[in-house]
Amino acid sequence: MELKKYELAKIIVFHGGFLPESFTSQPVQQALIQSFCQNHNKAIECLCEATATHPEPSMFVILGKLQMKAKKTKVIKFTLYICQARHIFFLQKDFLRAIHLNPKCIKARICLGYNLETLGKLQRAWRQFTVAICIDPKCRAAYDGRTSVCLQMGETFAAFQDTNALTTSAPLLTNQGVINELMGYLPCAMKDYQQAISVDTNYALAYFNAAYCYYSKVLQLDPRNESAVMNHAITNTLLNNIEEAKEDFEKAIRLCPFSAAVYFNRANLYNGLKQYELAEKYNSTALSIQPNDALMYKFRADIRSKLGFNKEAVEDYKQAMSIQEQFDSM
């Protein structure tokens, strides 16, 4: 400081502040001074001496910084790898110490499991996650960790069992059913949907997926079943499977070209897609087949108002009200 070498002083103080008192030996100071004086090779040589006697992560961090300053990028990577490896090693010692103090410490066991997994010691990691599960059978983190280890060991079935162990909510069971369905396992999918419904009887998506599964099975047995095709299309619409719904409606129209219900539900699909011209077209076709339906007039009025056809929309609303009044008076 007296020589007004403020930057040098700042660097030495900065780095020295992060080191334990025993590490602030002459090689470290010399390395920092040599680095400041642009003698990078000498600085690295000095610090290598320090790391030989005090192989701590903080020393390797400083060495990495000096090598970065010297633009020795390949050596930097190697140094950082050493630092990371030593850091993992010291973490492992901490976790083991925590487990020694409290063998039922779940957090320590899970952290140790992930630590061992990082080092590639999968069997030992699996053992730690398993002990954590024995301590707390509902610990999701332990199941997630063991699932990851099982997959890396090629134990797919065991991983799937661990995933299932905590799959208890209706949304998760429904998602599992969808996966089984996509894989072609319809019986398994149906089991998942039924379990989801038993967990939450108000979870509508599980019912829709179960219905979709049933209709798919019907169509496998009877591909020309008109009711199954139309309901399959409606279910696809509700599940937002747009392309499949379009294909189903095409098939339904080929099977029953004079069904007002098919055209009406197809109009519903395009209304949801905000393709109002097509929605109006198919709803009008439905009305030409079944002209005394108040709901269809009301629906077309809604569509026409979105298209800006206000006069036609008002006429449809009036027609819907007239039909409904006639129906109520009967």
UniProtKB/TrEMBL annotation:
Keywords: Repeat, TPR repeat
SUPFAM superfamilies named in the record: TPR-like
Domain of life: Eukaryota
UniProt KW Cell membrane keyword: no
SMART domains in the cross-refs: TPR (SM00028)
InterPro entries: TPR-like_helical_dom_sf, TPR_rpt, Ycf3
Keyword Glycosyltransferase recorded: no
TPR repeats by residue range: 260-293
Pfam families, alphabetized: TPR_1, TPR_8
Name of protein: Tetratricopeptide repeat protein 6
Source lineage: Eukaryota, Metazoa, Chordata, Craniata, Vertebrata
